[in-house]
Amino acid sequence: MKKIFAFAALAAMILACSPKSRVDALMAQMTLEEKIGQLNQLVGPELTGTEASQNVEEKIRSGAVGSILNIKGAENVRAVQKIAVEESRLGIPIVFGLDVIHGYETAFPIPLAMACSWDMEAIERASRIAAEEASVSGIAWTFTPMCDIARDPRWGRIAEGAGEDPYLGAAVAAAQVRGFQRDLSDSTCIAACVKHFALYGGAQAGRDYYTVDMSRQQMFNEYMLPYQAAVDAGALTAMSSFNEFESVPLTFHKYLLTDVLRGRYGFEGMLVTDYTAIKECIAHGAAADLKEGAIKAINAGVDMDMVDESFNKHLAEAVKEGKVSVKTIDQACRRVLELKEKLGLFDDPYRFCREEQAAELLQSDKYVSDARSVADECIVLLKNEGSVLPLKEGARIAVIGPLGDLSKEMLGCWHVMPKYHEQISVYQGLVDRFGADKVKYAFGSHVFDDQKVESKLALDKNVLRRDKSDEALLAEALSVARSSDVIVATLGELARMSGEGCSRSDITIPAPQRELLKALAKTGKPIVLVTLAGRPLVLDWEDENIPAIVTAWHLGAEAGNAVADVLSGDVNPSGRLTVSFPRSVGQIPIHYNHKNSGRPRGDYAPFQRYTSCYCDVVNAPLYHFGHGLSYSEIEYSDLELSADSLSRAQLPLKVKVKLTNKSGRDAVEVAQLYIHDRFASITRPVKELKGFQRVAVGAGQSVELEFELDKDSFSFYDYSLEKVLEAGDFEIMAGASADDRVLLKKNFRIVE
Ligand code: BGC
């Protein structure tokens, strides 16, 4: 009886107080052990990860649990919350977290694909829907947005971020935070998490979890903006990253976690480690044991330990030994309680357990149709020679390739909740659009040459057709191909070939599938290659030999319908790359915003000894950042600046550019604005994105766009890491991608 009233007593006490004093009042009653208990995050057994916490109920009863991740469904969350609220001494509710990365039950495209829409409203809407679904299912906290800039497509987690550009990455991160958190007084809003702080995407050699090292100038100028934007957008929590930087794992990185994140960026929320990251500092060589790890982490600025329970095991003793101060524990505990307070958990610990609403909302028709319209915008048409696309009505279509009917795999990485049977494959989407009599399918080849690795990567290894030989699969495919008018080759990666823990050293289409494509090319039939993958692929052979190439990433629930929308021409493609596609793995890291050397070589200039280039490949990527075609032809003209020169005080500079749709088909264009700071106190990139507009341009119509470049657009972090706005010469560029060949340019000067 006494226990049942624990939360009621707590509620009565805290209801009488203001939010701040509620937390004060609660903390005044807590023992040191209970405070430390709030810093402990356990993991449920069901989902991702490698560990499941033991004796969870007992720990909750003793007040040793502040948060739990990976518990599925409102009823299960309610049952666990009940133990905390009714059976622990103070009845403090638990905050339940989950990786709601690109949708909860309604699976949206992977984040990299969504970024390629350049549509911040669509990204915010996708996050909003994910929040609405998660928030009725017990989840109060998502580990999103991933703000890590990635310039190395070998790194599997490139799938989870917005790509290679800090300006665009910042806009995407802010849109995600707005979508999840919008207004916390509304119970459909959940806490966002700025992750992985920091620089996780800079892993050497594209190997996950691996060493990161770079100058602090590079860090501030080229990597940090998205994290800062997520903080500015009000993200309530942050997560430290697995990697080391300057030889210190981020879990222990006081300078970044405290001086930069809190000091410079003003983050006031709660900071959690990544999964078992404290224990991993032993393997890093940064702590001799878990106790040293716990001490270093909390003293660096970490508030909550994800999974390791190192705080529970060691901090009370560390306080007695004077290695951690009570003030530090109090501060961390306060941040956890403030998070719970802001989420309304003290008012109603079951606020996010709304079973009835869940039944009605999850995967509702409206959400699924939103997932389709967002997916439509993410598809990037890379090449379309001889107008192979759109597909002609009445044509006999052969869908060939192992990815074409593996619907689960379209979910991509981090599909924590979806109902698998409800995803649409490309084959299914084309059948629905063109009719079963017009569309035939053949598996064509195995996914991957190494069968053992292939079965580790597949979500369902029973569908991999290992009962058939390569020859038999090819024979089937060729017979389907020969009786068709056009081939849609559906090739690429299984969901688990990207995402956490899956880097690739060779990012071409895996060998058996590439062989299949070569055999299909020999039939002489027109081919549309649809790549389905979590990362940019090296498509050098394909670009030379295949007339039409579309990258359709892993697009989630409505993947197949979205691909059919674009291939049929019902939707005019509008996606634009947010990562460069290399022409050779040896060009990596490759990104448009690189520096010049003292011996620069033009993007397409042939090899010349003693200049900065390769003797076997040009410097240019195969497909540039920002690239993407449509079925229309858009011409850029009339680039105009409001002035040739301005003083700092006279900024902003206004930039105008005209877009004309020279075709008979309505289009959506993503107009991009870049600057180049030609001479500065430190060298600056050859190009930096500083503005973009996604705009409809009707058939035969023109639109005039106006951009503003303000003080911030021209500022950067200098050698002493101060943000400065230096006078000097700039190039202002506008166009359809970062490719110099399509950019209009004007000179501009900032005078003293
Ligand atoms: C990942 C994080 C994720 C966490 C919790 C880790 O392995 O790096 O991105 O949020 O697990 O699932």
Q: Beta fraction of the residues?
A: 15-25%
Number of helices, counting only DSSP H or I runs of 4 residues or more: 24
Question: What structural class is derived from the secondary structure elements?
Answer: alpha/beta
Oligomer: single chain
Indicate the mean pLDDT. 95
Radius of gyration (CA) equals: 27 Å
The gross shape turns out to be globular
- End-to-end separation: 75 Å
Proportion in helices: 25-40%
Which distinct ligands sit in these coordinates? beta-D-glucopyranose
Describe the model.
With 752 residues, this protein is α/β, with parallel strands linked by helices. It has a six-stranded mixed β-sheet with strand order 11-16-15-14-12-13, with helices on both faces. The protein has a five-stranded parallel β-sheet with strand order 4-3-2-1-10. It has a five-stranded mixed β-sheet with strand order 18-26-25-20-21. Helix 7 runs parallel beside helix 8, helix 13 (290-300) packs across helix 14 (310-320) and helix 20 runs parallel beside helix 21. The structure holds beta-D-glucopyranose (BGC).
In short:
The chain is of the alpha/beta class and 752 residues long. The protein is 32% helix and 17% strand. Bound molecules: beta-D-glucopyranose.
Characteristics:
single chain, 752 residues, alpha/beta, six-stranded mixed beta sheet, 32% helix, binds beta-D-glucopyranose
Helix-strand layout with pairing:
Layout: H1 6-15, H2 19-29, H3 32-37, E1 40-43, H4 56-61, E2 67-69, H5 74-87, E3 95-98, H6 111-115, H7 120-135, E4 141-142, H8 166-181, E5 193-197, H9 216-223, H10 225-232, E6 237-240, E7 244-245, E8 248-249, H11 254-264, E9 270-272, H12 277-284, H13 290-300, E10 305-306, H14 310-320, H15 326-342, H16 355-361, H17 365-378, E11 380-384, E12 397-400, H18 426-434, E13 439-442, H19 451-457, H20 470-482, E14 486-492, H21 511-522, E15 527-532, H22 540-545, E16 548-551, H23 559-568, E17 634-641, E18 645-647, E19 653-661, E20 667-677, E21 688-697, E22 702-709, H24 711-714, E23 716-717, E24 723-724, E25 728-735, E26 743-751
The protein binds beta-D-glucopyranose.
